[in-house]
Amino acid sequence: MPQKVTDRRIQRTRQLLQDSLVALILEKGYESITVQDIIDRANVGRSTFYAHFQDKEDLFLSGFENLQSQFEQHLLGQSPSEINPWTLSLVMFQHAQEYQRVYKALVGERGGHTMLSHLQRYMSAHIGEHLKSHLPVRRKEQIPLEILTLYIYSTLTSLLTWWLDHDMPYPAEQINDMFRQLTQPTVESILQQA
Amino acid sequence: MPQKVTDRRIQRTRQLLQDSLVALILEKGYESITVQDIIDRANVGRSTFYAHFQDKEDLFLSGFENLQSQFEQHLLGQSPSEINPWTLSLVMFQHAQEYQRVYKALVGERGGHTMLSHLQRYMSAHIGEHLKSHLPVRRKEQIPLEILTLYIYSTLTSLLTWWLDHDMPYPAEQINDMFRQLTQPTVESILQQA
Amino acid sequence: MPQKVTDRRIQRTRQLLQDSLVALILEKGYESITVQDIIDRANVGRSTFYAHFQDKEDLFLSGFENLQSQFEQHLLGQSPSEINPWTLSLVMFQHAQEYQRVYKALVGERGGHTMLSHLQRYMSAHIGEHLKSHLPVRRKEQIPLEILTLYIYSTLTSLLTWWLDHDMPYPAEQINDMFRQLTQPTVESILQQA
Amino acid sequence: MPQKVTDRRIQRTRQLLQDSLVALILEKGYESITVQDIIDRANVGRSTFYAHFQDKEDLFLSGFENLQSQFEQHLLGQSPSEINPWTLSLVMFQHAQEYQRVYKALVGERGGHTMLSHLQRYMSAHIGEHLKSHLPVRRKEQIPLEILTLYIYSTLTSLLTWWLDHDMPYPAEQINDMFRQLTQPTVESILQQA
DNA sequence: TCCTAAGCGAGACGGTACGTCTTGTCTTCCA
DNA sequence: TGGAAGACAAGACGTACCGTCTCGCTTAGGA
Questions:
Q1: Nearest CB partner across the interface for A185, out of B154, B159, B186
Q2: Does domain A55-191 correspond to CATH entry 1.10.4160?
Q3: What is the mean pLDDT of residues A10-31?
């Protein structure tokens, strides 16, 4: 079903703005960007910007959500034999490798910390679900599930951010292997506490 | 040598400003505070503020550095038999427990992410030093030291922030034990890779 | 010759817009009306508005010129024995009485001052012509013709505007009589200065 | 009593803004001036403008009121033997002659019509008072006082505006004499209607 | 009866001015 | 002489209108 032309125009404008933001983040960092910078680069009127996005952060998040949807696609496309934190992370590193530029802007340090809470909500759900299904029925509960999830999530994002900010010195598979070596021993030792 | 009265006045003003900032962070979060808010609460003139601090972030960091110095004192006072990541972390959790209010403001989520990079620099030095001295002379180097340091640091700060933002539901010793359970297996397994 | 239907459509749209403007002026005054207000009320597209009129003022003037043409018709239909300022004014007051609503909008105070200069140009021609033909060949020229014209014109428009803004408390003939009482003595005394 | 220096600074800024407005009105007319134009010329920050005046019109009126106060001073200083419409008008024409520049800006056609209603309120009081005290006890009431006042006021402002916009081709005394010749016969004839 | 061109609505868009808000500098006064 | 008070320049913000534009829908009048 072909879209209405109007819709295509709208999409074009949104894309122009998102692209401008990405380029500007890579140039001078998220915090120091003004709305004027963005619309100048996108050749877009001020009111047009505000017709599409509430403010700079809203624009940022729209790009971030795009990335997330795209990531979901990848995840489904891969359909790994088992979804666990380390297959999830592999897909993420690979995805980041493919879309370096956008990832560096939105997830790297120049992108500010806006994305942290959003990423956390998303990742924690996936990770927590996996862990819950592998928990022994009764365990000593020294470490609550919430903290174990937090642990895995924070290790993963730290690695991801570091990897992006250092221009991905390893291929996705290798950095993911490090992630596995860092977290798997701990996770297994904890899950097996009878 | 007695300080000049003037110096005491200066100290008083700096303290007033730092206290205002802490109170305001707990009330409405770091980002949404304006310089006007701070000086109104401190009953201080605008020019006075800028006589002492470059800007809001400078004030924040001055408080943060106070905390760090105080922490160093604690650390020396404790003089643990061995300084390793887990004794360091214990002192930190205990320190945070003692100065809850300031920690919640400066390290908790309401304090923004300004402190992250500063805390990282500080912690990474301590942690890295410990690791280096325990590294086997030749190892397979699958995981570089920098990443291992990052791993420990990010786990610690995640735990600390979570603990503060959830009103410290465990005593310092217990949350530190969780930290140990999360990181020690991994660290040891890595360090022993011949 | 019957007009093309297309032309009738065009006329209808123009009329819709003029009517909207009149209604809106009476409601909230000329200055505070936006083009959006006008086209919303007329159920007309934005581009349609600009296809017919350059801007809000152009629309206003188009209505004003309509009124003027209509007034010319009246003037011819009356064919007063002599056209002088006071027969002219009588026709005007009568015309205004008949088309109260439009006059209040376009000439009253809510209509702004746009019409003043246009009305002035029109009236001054009529008045000036009359005066010139009654001037004594040589007079002391203490008061130039231009000023005498201005005097009559400004008195007439002041009375007209006042009359409209006060909901026409007198019939046209009576307010015109006041106009005559106010201006005729002066005009005659001046014209007769040998 | 010397004013506080702060007050002098404030006065200076207000004056700068008023002067800018006058200069700009003479250059391009009131309507087409933007706040940015004003503050650029005055070398004043945007927020400073709004700290002193609500908007462009407020600035205009502040200048207008200055003029009025000054005019009152003149009027008192002159202390004419009798205050009637024609001595009042003489002082006004003389005052305008002295402060040509400001009058052309604030009362001339380039100044827009904002001042009309304000001037009217002021003048009508003076004129009305004079007329009331000269009314015969019982008269035929063909022309209400309000209209007679309006008549005098509108003639005076028409003359004043014309005079300013034509660069004052006559001295104040002569244009005032025209005003007298135009209005006095009518006023006397009306007031004497027994 | 169909075709075609014009009138039209809808509304996205670039642009500009608005009035508000915050920053960091500066000047003056007071204790 | 240091600090309080606060005026100020600078400039970003989000809003409101403007006048232009592109797009399809409708509809009349000629083929």
A1: B186
A2: no
A3: 96
